[in-house]
Amino acid sequence: MNKDWLEKDFYASLGVSKDATADEIKKKYRKLARELHPDKNPDNPKAEEKFKEVSEAYDILSDTDKRREYDEARTMFASGGFGPGGYGAGAPGGGSYNVNMDDLFGGQGGDFSDLLGGIFNRGRGGARSPQPRRGEDLETELNLSFDDALDGVTVPLNLRTEAACDSCRGTGAKPGTMPHTCPSCGGQGQVARNAGGFAFPETCPTCRGRGQLIDDPCTACRGAGRAMKTRTVQARIPAGVKDDARIRLAGKGTPGERGGPAGDLMVNIHVAAHPLFTRKGDNITFTAPVTFSEAALGSQITVPTPRDGNVTLKIPAGTTTGKTFRVKGKGIKRKDGKQGDVLVTVEVAVPQKLSDEARVALETYAGLTEDHDPRRDLMTLAGQ
Ligand SMILES: [Zn+2]
Ligand SMILES: [Zn+2]
Prior knowledge:
The protein is elongated, with a radius of gyration of 36 Å. It has helices at 4-7, 10-14, 22-36, 45-61, 64-82, 101-104, 109-121, 146-151, 292-297, 356-368, 378-382; strands spanning 138-144, 153-164, 180-181, 190-195, 198-203, 212-213, 226-237, 246-249, 265-271, 278-280, 283-290, 299-305, 309-315, 324-327, 342-348. It folds into three domains: 1-99, Orthogonal Bundle (Helix Hairpins), CATH 1.10.287.110; 130-179 and 214-273, HSP40/DNAj peptide-binding domain (Sandwich), CATH 2.60.260.20; 278-382, HSP40/DNAj peptide-binding domain. The chain has eleven helices and 15 strands. A hairpin with a 2-residue loop joins strand 4 (190-195) and strand 5. One zinc ion binds next to loops. Residues 9-74 form the J domain.
């Protein structure tokens, strides 16, 4: 008997009536489980919470014995003065939590806990483990090349995590033997403890909540049923992922226990720097050197773009150093199908060595452009 039972309306959780057939319950559960599954609702703690609630409700209502116990427990509490709505948040009159159990049961606290104990132990067949448990979330680091980050990539990640032990297939018992139901708690993992006339459930001290006892522990896992294993997970990294991004891969964490869902895997992305390209949002930037004559006379220069090879860029006559040109649609691919641009900044490269002819030609050029003083306004602007 679980104290939760008095507070939780499993029928309401599944959205079925109290006299729903097993088939109706199963159908409703499958529909809800599909909708609420964590794989379908990544990063949605509300859906996750509801998923757990629905799973718990189904666990009870799908088991004929448990359902009968649950119904009986709730009926008993309802008839004990809690009104037809039962014991819980929906009870008419609200505030009926502060009921004195001795008043209710005429001071016969002992009888009361016996009553609960009776419900508790009845109809419990084979060993049933306690609640399913969701697997733990894991975290891992992933280094990506600049190109892989641009294009997206599926990479195998080797994870060392806990999983069911191979030797005992997770039972914890030596192969060939089986764990047996804990006699103290009947496999429930909890026992009723009488406190102030009210029976509270507490973790069974004999089996420490496992519901089962193992006489001959598995030597491989020393009875834990779990072992460290290397698993390989295929991680799909979307195109355009940024450096320092954190990607959640739902259900790729530690496998759950007793049918619980797997945890999630958080992947911390580190993108290697590129020797030429720099990323700015959805755009790629880099600097292309041009000669003075290309900038002054205008020219067509060939520049690279990531992945897509080279493009020809038209530099108009009179282009100043530092001017940026846009190559449309060659940048980062986005989820919506659009693509960023490549931004090419030109920078005039000054030759470090000149041939005699080139020097003469430049001196001729200097003589011909004496009238052009680029610093004419400098002193004025400085206020001198
Ligand atoms: Zn084992
Ligand atoms: Zn026990």
